[in-house]
Amino acid sequence: LDAAPVRIARCVTVAWKVDLRSRPSPLLGSTVQAWAMASEQAQMLNRNAEVLSSPAVTMLLSQIRAKSTTQKDYVNAADRLMGILAEEGLARLATPMTVVTPCGTCSGLEAPLGSSICAVDIIRSGGILLEAVRKVCPDLKTAKVLIQRDEKTALPQFFYKKLPNGIEKKKVILCDPMLASGGSALMAIDCLKEAGVFEDNILFLNVVSCPEGLRALAEKAPGVRILSAALDEKLDEHKFIVPGLGDFGDRYYGTAGYDEGLWGSDGK
What does pTM read for this prediction? Predict the structure, then answer.
Protein backbone atom coordinates (compact mmCIF):
# COMPACT_ATOMS: atom_id res chain seq x y z
CA LEU A 1 0.00 0.00 0.00
CA ASP A 2 2.77 2.41 0.87
CA ALA A 3 4.42 1.92 -2.54
CA ALA A 4 1.29 2.82 -4.53
CA PRO A 5 1.46 6.61 -4.02
CA VAL A 6 5.14 6.52 -5.04
CA ARG A 7 4.33 4.71 -8.29
CA ILE A 8 1.51 7.15 -9.03
CA ALA A 9 3.75 10.16 -8.34
CA ARG A 10 6.42 8.75 -10.67
CA CYS A 11 3.85 8.28 -13.45
CA VAL A 12 2.56 11.83 -13.03
CA THR A 13 6.10 13.22 -13.10
CA VAL A 14 6.98 11.35 -16.31
CA ALA A 15 3.73 12.42 -17.99
CA TRP A 16 4.34 16.04 -17.00
CA LYS A 17 7.85 15.98 -18.46
CA VAL A 18 6.62 14.47 -21.73
CA ASP A 19 3.86 17.05 -21.98
CA LEU A 20 6.36 19.90 -21.63
CA ARG A 21 8.59 18.45 -24.32
CA SER A 22 5.67 18.04 -26.72
CA ARG A 23 4.86 21.74 -26.59
CA PRO A 24 8.11 23.67 -27.06
CA SER A 25 7.87 27.45 -26.96
CA PRO A 26 9.25 29.22 -30.06
CA LEU A 27 9.89 32.28 -27.92
CA LEU A 28 11.90 30.27 -25.39
CA GLY A 29 13.87 28.69 -28.22
CA SER A 30 15.00 32.08 -29.53
CA THR A 31 15.86 33.16 -25.99
CA VAL A 32 18.05 30.08 -25.46
CA GLN A 33 19.86 30.86 -28.71
CA ALA A 34 20.50 34.42 -27.48
CA TRP A 35 21.91 33.06 -24.19
CA ALA A 36 24.32 30.80 -26.03
CA MET A 37 25.52 33.67 -28.21
CA ALA A 38 26.01 35.97 -25.20
CA SER A 39 28.05 33.37 -23.32
CA GLU A 40 30.18 32.64 -26.37
CA GLN A 41 30.81 36.33 -27.02
CA ALA A 42 31.70 36.94 -23.37
CA GLN A 43 34.27 34.14 -23.48
CA MET A 44 35.81 35.65 -26.60
CA LEU A 45 36.14 39.03 -24.88
CA ASN A 46 37.34 37.67 -21.54
CA ARG A 47 38.15 34.01 -20.90
CA ASN A 48 37.06 34.37 -17.26
CA ALA A 49 33.67 35.90 -18.05
CA GLU A 50 30.38 34.05 -17.73
CA VAL A 51 26.83 35.18 -18.55
CA LEU A 52 23.91 33.66 -16.67
CA SER A 53 21.15 32.09 -18.72
CA SER A 54 17.64 31.31 -17.48
CA PRO A 55 14.08 32.41 -18.19
CA ALA A 56 13.87 33.96 -14.71
CA VAL A 57 16.94 36.13 -15.32
CA THR A 58 15.61 37.26 -18.70
CA MET A 59 12.17 38.04 -17.26
CA LEU A 60 13.53 40.15 -14.40
CA LEU A 61 16.07 41.89 -16.62
CA SER A 62 13.28 42.79 -19.03
CA GLN A 63 11.38 44.45 -16.22
CA ILE A 64 14.25 46.57 -14.92
CA ARG A 65 15.32 47.52 -18.44
CA ALA A 66 11.88 48.81 -19.46
CA LYS A 67 11.63 52.60 -19.43
CA SER A 68 8.02 52.39 -18.22
CA THR A 69 8.82 50.39 -15.05
CA THR A 70 7.85 52.25 -11.87
CA GLN A 71 10.21 52.54 -8.92
CA LYS A 72 8.16 50.07 -6.88
CA ASP A 73 8.28 47.44 -9.62
CA TYR A 74 11.92 48.23 -10.39
CA VAL A 75 13.01 47.63 -6.78
CA ASN A 76 10.99 44.43 -6.58
CA ALA A 77 12.43 42.98 -9.80
CA ALA A 78 15.97 44.18 -9.02
CA ASP A 79 15.94 42.56 -5.57
CA ARG A 80 14.72 39.27 -7.01
CA LEU A 81 17.38 39.36 -9.72
CA MET A 82 20.07 40.20 -7.16
CA GLY A 83 19.02 37.16 -5.16
CA ILE A 84 19.57 34.89 -8.16
CA LEU A 85 22.91 36.50 -8.94
CA ALA A 86 24.00 36.16 -5.30
CA GLU A 87 23.13 32.46 -5.21
CA GLU A 88 24.90 31.81 -8.51
CA GLY A 89 27.96 33.73 -7.33
CA LEU A 90 28.25 31.74 -4.12
CA ALA A 91 27.79 28.53 -6.09
CA ARG A 92 30.89 29.44 -8.13
CA LEU A 93 32.85 29.24 -4.86
CA ALA A 94 31.43 25.85 -3.89
CA THR A 95 33.48 22.63 -3.83
CA PRO A 96 32.54 19.21 -5.25
CA MET A 97 31.17 16.69 -2.78
CA THR A 98 29.37 13.36 -2.62
CA VAL A 99 25.85 13.69 -1.24
CA VAL A 100 24.38 10.82 0.77
CA THR A 101 20.63 10.74 0.15
CA PRO A 102 18.01 8.51 1.84
CA CYS A 103 18.18 6.27 -1.25
CA GLY A 104 21.83 6.35 -2.28
CA THR A 105 24.57 8.80 -3.25
CA CYS A 106 25.08 11.46 -5.93
CA SER A 107 27.51 14.17 -6.89
CA GLY A 108 26.87 17.64 -5.53
CA LEU A 109 28.39 20.94 -4.42
CA GLU A 110 29.22 21.98 -0.88
CA ALA A 111 28.46 25.62 -0.09
CA PRO A 112 31.46 27.74 0.93
CA LEU A 113 31.87 28.77 4.54
CA GLY A 114 30.80 32.35 5.16
CA SER A 115 33.93 32.88 7.23
CA SER A 116 36.04 32.25 4.13
CA ILE A 117 34.38 35.02 2.07
CA CYS A 118 34.47 38.80 2.00
CA ALA A 119 31.89 40.68 -0.09
CA VAL A 120 33.06 44.12 -1.25
CA ASP A 121 30.74 46.67 -2.78
CA ILE A 122 31.54 49.70 -4.88
CA ILE A 123 29.35 52.36 -3.27
CA ARG A 124 26.48 53.15 -3.93
CA SER A 125 24.70 50.66 -6.15
CA GLY A 126 27.10 47.86 -5.27
CA GLY A 127 25.55 47.83 -1.80
CA ILE A 128 22.28 46.53 -3.24
CA LEU A 129 24.00 43.46 -4.61
CA LEU A 130 26.17 43.05 -1.50
CA GLU A 131 23.08 42.88 0.72
CA ALA A 132 21.65 40.15 -1.51
CA VAL A 133 24.86 38.15 -1.04
CA ARG A 134 24.85 38.73 2.71
CA LYS A 135 21.21 37.67 2.95
CA VAL A 136 22.07 34.15 1.75
CA CYS A 137 25.43 34.06 3.55
CA PRO A 138 25.00 36.21 6.69
CA ASP A 139 28.32 35.36 8.34
CA LEU A 140 30.60 36.61 5.56
CA LYS A 141 32.76 39.68 6.04
CA THR A 142 31.86 42.89 4.21
CA ALA A 143 33.87 45.83 2.91
CA LYS A 144 33.27 49.16 1.19
CA VAL A 145 35.04 51.02 -1.58
CA LEU A 146 33.91 54.48 -2.69
CA ILE A 147 34.79 55.26 -6.29
CA GLN A 148 32.85 57.77 -8.34
CA ARG A 149 32.99 58.61 -12.01
CA ASP A 150 33.84 62.17 -12.98
CA GLU A 151 30.88 63.21 -15.14
CA LYS A 152 33.07 65.44 -17.32
CA THR A 153 35.95 63.06 -18.00
CA ALA A 154 34.15 59.73 -17.34
CA LEU A 155 37.26 58.70 -15.37
CA PRO A 156 36.97 57.03 -11.93
CA GLN A 157 38.01 58.87 -8.77
CA PHE A 158 38.94 57.03 -5.57
CA PHE A 159 37.63 58.44 -2.26
CA TYR A 160 37.49 55.78 0.45
CA LYS A 161 37.95 52.14 1.39
CA LYS A 162 37.26 50.06 4.48
CA LEU A 163 38.55 46.51 4.31
CA PRO A 164 38.57 43.88 7.10
CA ASN A 165 41.76 42.47 8.53
CA GLY A 166 42.83 39.25 6.86
CA ILE A 167 41.05 39.93 3.59
CA GLU A 168 44.08 38.57 1.73
CA LYS A 169 43.20 35.10 3.03
CA LYS A 170 39.61 35.14 1.79
CA LYS A 171 37.65 34.65 -1.39
CA VAL A 172 36.38 38.07 -2.43
CA ILE A 173 33.05 38.78 -4.13
CA LEU A 174 33.22 42.23 -5.70
CA CYS A 175 29.75 43.73 -6.21
CA ASP A 176 28.73 46.42 -8.70
CA PRO A 177 25.61 46.17 -10.88
CA MET A 178 27.09 47.76 -14.01
CA LEU A 179 30.36 46.99 -15.82
CA ALA A 180 30.76 49.81 -18.34
CA SER A 181 34.28 51.00 -19.17
CA GLY A 182 35.71 48.94 -16.32
CA GLY A 183 37.50 51.91 -14.75
CA SER A 184 35.78 51.74 -11.35
CA ALA A 185 36.06 47.96 -11.18
CA LEU A 186 39.77 48.03 -12.00
CA MET A 187 40.38 50.71 -9.37
CA ALA A 188 38.56 48.59 -6.78
CA ILE A 189 40.54 45.53 -7.85
CA ASP A 190 43.77 47.52 -7.43
CA CYS A 191 42.67 48.39 -3.86
CA LEU A 192 42.15 44.71 -3.15
CA LYS A 193 45.46 43.72 -4.69
CA GLU A 194 47.26 46.34 -2.59
CA ALA A 195 45.71 44.64 0.46
CA GLY A 196 47.21 41.31 -0.64
CA VAL A 197 44.26 39.76 -2.47
CA PHE A 198 45.19 37.70 -5.54
CA GLU A 199 43.20 38.17 -8.74
CA ASP A 200 42.36 34.46 -8.79
CA ASN A 201 40.51 34.92 -5.49
CA ILE A 202 38.21 37.68 -6.82
CA LEU A 203 34.78 37.02 -8.31
CA PHE A 204 33.16 40.12 -9.80
CA LEU A 205 29.34 40.06 -9.82
CA ASN A 206 27.37 42.46 -12.01
CA VAL A 207 23.96 42.72 -13.62
CA VAL A 208 24.87 44.21 -17.01
CA SER A 209 28.27 44.19 -18.69
CA CYS A 210 29.52 45.36 -22.09
CA PRO A 211 32.42 44.45 -24.40
CA GLU A 212 34.54 47.46 -23.44
CA GLY A 213 34.48 46.53 -19.75
CA LEU A 214 35.17 42.86 -20.35
CA ARG A 215 38.15 43.71 -22.57
CA ALA A 216 39.54 46.14 -19.99
CA LEU A 217 39.47 43.50 -17.26
CA ALA A 218 40.93 40.88 -19.59
CA GLU A 219 43.87 43.19 -20.25
CA LYS A 220 44.52 44.61 -16.78
CA ALA A 221 43.07 42.01 -14.39
CA PRO A 222 43.00 38.74 -16.35
CA GLY A 223 42.77 36.52 -13.27
CA VAL A 224 39.49 38.01 -12.01
CA ARG A 225 36.40 35.91 -12.70
CA ILE A 226 33.28 37.74 -13.87
CA LEU A 227 29.67 36.62 -13.53
CA SER A 228 27.09 38.80 -15.25
CA ALA A 229 23.36 38.53 -15.85
CA ALA A 230 23.66 40.15 -19.29
CA LEU A 231 26.14 41.21 -21.96
CA ASP A 232 25.02 44.31 -23.83
CA GLU A 233 26.03 45.78 -27.16
CA LYS A 234 28.34 48.72 -26.43
CA LEU A 235 28.99 52.04 -24.69
CA ASP A 236 27.58 55.23 -26.19
CA GLU A 237 29.46 58.53 -26.51
CA HIS A 238 28.62 59.34 -22.86
CA LYS A 239 29.99 55.99 -21.64
CA PHE A 240 26.55 54.61 -20.84
CA ILE A 241 25.74 50.99 -21.67
CA VAL A 242 23.47 50.41 -24.68
CA PRO A 243 20.73 49.19 -24.54
CA GLY A 244 21.38 49.11 -20.78
CA LEU A 245 18.75 50.16 -18.28
CA GLY A 246 19.54 53.78 -17.39
CA ASP A 247 21.13 54.65 -14.06
CA PHE A 248 20.74 51.61 -11.81
CA GLY A 249 21.14 53.52 -8.54
CA ASP A 250 18.85 56.42 -9.45
CA ARG A 251 16.12 54.06 -10.57
CA TYR A 252 16.46 51.88 -7.46
CA TYR A 253 16.77 54.64 -4.86
CA GLY A 254 14.53 57.14 -6.66
CA THR A 255 17.08 59.95 -6.46
CA ALA A 256 16.60 61.16 -10.03
CA GLY A 257 14.87 60.45 -13.31
CA TYR A 258 11.27 59.83 -12.26
CA ASP A 259 10.14 63.45 -11.92
CA GLU A 260 12.15 64.35 -15.01
CA GLY A 261 10.33 61.71 -17.06
CA LEU A 262 13.44 59.66 -17.89
CA TRP A 263 11.71 56.52 -16.64
CA GLY A 264 8.45 55.43 -14.99
CA SER A 265 6.94 57.08 -11.93
CA ASP A 266 4.92 55.63 -9.07
CA GLY A 267 1.71 57.48 -9.80
CA LYS A 268 -0.28 54.72 -8.16
Answer: 0.85
